[in-house]
Design a protein that fits this description.
- The protein contains 16 helices and seven strands.
- A four-stranded antiparallel beta sheet has the order 1-2-3-4, covered by helices on one side. It has a three-stranded antiparallel beta sheet with strand order 5-6-7.
- The longest helix is centred in the middle third of the chain and has 20 residues, at 162-181.
- 43% of the residues lie in helices and 10% in strands.
- With 408 residues, it is an alpha+beta fold.
Length: 408
Amino acid sequence: MQLLTQKPEITAKNYLSVGPGEYPCGNNLYLIVTPSGGRRWAFRYQRNGVVKKMGFGSAKETGLKLSEAKDKAIDALRLLSKGTDPREHRDDEKRRTQGSRQFGEFAEEWRQTYETGFRHKAARAKLKRIVQLICKPLHKHWLDEIETAHVVNVLKSVWHQRETSRTTRQIIKKILDAAIAHNLRPKDNPADWASRLQPIMPKQRRRGTTRGGHKAMDYKDLPAFMRKLAAISTQSARALEVTILTLARTAEVQNMRWTQLDLDNGIWDLGFLGTKSERAKRTPLPRQTLAYLREAYAHRVSDEFVFLGRSLKTPMSNMTMLKYFKELTGDGSLTVHGFRTTFRTWAQEETDFEEEIVEHCLHHITGDDAEKAYKRGEALKKRLLVMQKFADFATQRPKSNVTPMKAA
């Protein structure tokens, strides 16, 4: 009967002299000796049901000593107890020392620098949401290993939101362009639309038929709607009237401040528009709006916001106007932003105003980049003429069907 030879216990004295084989050394550490005499340390562990091995290096005279290998094994066990894969952790640290960066940390640093050019909190909040939430699947990837498939995986989650998906792709591209500029990845950009994404991404359906996908009220129905709105004596109703007659965006009226208003000359100075435009925006106020704002200023309770929220330091909710709008129309598909399209259709169908001035009323500067560079004027008088005509149309009284009696 052949007796099984028991493997000797590995010690600091014999680990360089034992024969070929695999020798357990405690704490998942093994000494592996090959027939040719090579000997190395290996750490074996199980992760998510898969047995893995991580090498610690050579155990020869000039290599890693037994005590040092045991210390490394204990460190690896500590990482496992915290839920971290020790081999992945080691590889990440190696990349880091070589100058590589993960997308998440690099993107956050880029965001904090890039957003300094924004003038509105809403634009900064939007950028933060995209970088920190929508792009989260990219955070743990190293910049030099990100490929088009990784970008597609992010875009699929927001592809049903046309504007959000477009902005997300642009931001990812800018972040990777910055990484290329810092020599943190190859020069090709996997977020490039024409060469990488357009050939493989499905075509997006444009919602609605109006500009920007916002369903708009028929301009012929506007006067009747404005009469219903005038019958409601609340701040929110007045805010919606101001939004319609000034052709402003909801957020602009929501955040309207008394300091922006020149009530003597009838001008609303919004300053710069942040992400929408780099041009300063000043809007002439039709007399209906100006009359309300002058009266409201005389009875103001705050020197900051025109339309107050629950406190004197906060503006009204951005959903308040939409709530009134839906209640009055009974049509949940219409949007407040759509009134800008209502105005545009009215101007096209009912007036002979210059198209360029009509677009300027919406703060759309027409022409290519070269033309826009020379269009510095504000055309306040011409715009006021158009906007006043629209305000008169929107607030007109119903026509009477009674024929006046003639004097005898």
